[in-house]
What does this fold into?
Amino acid sequence: MRSDLKSGIFFLIISLVIIWESIRVELGTFLSPGSGFLSFGIGLVLCGLSIVLILRGLKIRIYQKPISIRVILALISLFIYSLVLEYLGFVVPTFFLVLFLFQLGQRRNWFLTIGISLVVTFLAYFIFGSLLHVYFPKGILGI
Amino acid sequence: MEILKNLIFGLNIVLTPINLLYCFFGVLLGTLVGVLPGLGPSATIALLLPMVFHGNPVSSIIMLAGITYGAQYGGSTTSILLNIPGEASSVITCIDGHQMAKQGRAGPALGIAALGSFIAGTIGVIGLMLFAPVLAKFALRFGPPEFFSLAIMSLTLVTYVSRGSIIKSLMMAFLGLAMSLVGMDPITSRLRFTFGVSALMDGFELVYVAMGLFGMSEVLINLDKSMRREILEAEIKNLLPTKQDWKDSAKPIARGTIIGFLFGIIPGFGQAIPTFLSYALEKKFSKKPEKFGKGAIEGVAGPESANNAASSGTFIPLLSLGIPVNPSTAILLGALMILGLQPGPLLIKTRPDLFWGVIASMYIGNVILVILNLPLIGLWVQILKVPYSILYVLIILICQIGAYSINNDVNDVLLVNIFGFFGYLMKRYDFEGAPLIMALVLGRMLESSLRRALMMSDGNPMIFLARPISAIFLVIAIILLISPLLTRKRIVGEPIES
It folds into this structure.
């Protein structure tokens, strides 16, 4: 796994986008610097640094552990959570997220985790929703 | 006399029930995150940023400040008792602190850490109180060229001092700068880097970036690691250090305070590096250097004082120049801006209630901390027993709700999660978050001062070198940038602290 190579390419693409956009919004001159003046410089430097990183990545191989399945699952659950929150309201998605994350952290008795998740969801709803007046989305379920 | 009058003014602000409560919560939370490994003060401040939108400015800043210095107290507890540093700044405390605990001297180790912290913290606040207004007055002479060069120097310092490859740190700084420019150009009102996405029109808001990069990513990175923690039971008795302990510790505390305070002021150094310096210095000064590593109380007293004095020092550039020196102060600076305050040399003059309120709260906070810390050590050890597999769920949930609560918008939750993912990748591939967040906060100021300076000089870039203060800042920055090229030490990048 050549991690420097990958991140170098990623940043190279970003820097090209920055350069392109800077030219589009006008560079201006030293006398009257435009909207893209500073960002053009930033893009150029970033581009140069990315190339150095890529060259280094070609030379040095660093072994990188693959991303753990735990992190991937946590991220997927979080993205699903943020996408369904609006439609399903606060309570149901939060309960399932908490339940899932508890089980992901450490396998425990299901009844116990369902119980804890219910308590946590209720407490969060009570503390943030009722005491701190956060207006949670209600969604199609009305809760 | 002027100062005394101002301090009483500040105390009047703090000694109201609501501000005392905020101060108490701040230092309590600070201690808690200090105790908990894997959750640093910058992550906590980031996670609590949404609260700033709901509270009054002075109270909010008092609380957030409390977290930064409170964390320095908590960090030592786990270092000493469990050999697990709660923070980077208490890594060095493990060496002799834990040895002392093993020899049955956990009590004096904890005692001297807390009392040394108190002394250093208080002296640090005195220094802050005396220095910041003077520096602010001096900085009133700064024009756009000086601010541009100051920002450049600060960013260079942060990049230079941060861990790992300097190329990667530089890339993060430039990425942060580019991100800060997204949205509307304040001078021409032209949209840039928005790519037609309406959410980007206001630019990247610091709250979401900080919550994701510092808060969420820390939790995700910890998920990769083992969730089990070994807790050793240590009997704690005789918290008060003996006369001999005091004799051994007095000078290390004094030296640690000075080192910490001075390095705290310089951007990039933060709280951790002064502790390493203090430890090295004490070992050098000691008549019995062989004692170090085997439970020398000097090895606890010096570094623990250094990190507290440093956290007071970090507030000087923040409050007098509007320049952050580490991620915590960068996020605090962001909080000030969110609250509609103009950080910079005029802050002390225009908002004396904020400046003196925060200063006074630090005196009070340090007293609360020293009172809280020692009796509550048992409680902190109990909290450590809460498995991380439960704790992380609560942190994530608070983060999600916090992100939502700012604008009652679910898209913000998504944004925080995206930044969390990005922050996770960054940490995995050894990119430091500090230069990015600093650049993001300073970027707009840097751009506007660059453009204004160039207009001032009719397009002549030499203006930055022609004005002496600006030239000094730039020369320091250039030396810092060139030195790794000459020594070839930092290019490939060995971490300078582990």
Chain A touches chain B through 63 residues (CB under 8 Å). Chain A is about 70% helix and 0% strand. The CA atoms of residues 103 and 109 of chain A lie 9 Å apart. The mean pLDDT of chain A is 88.
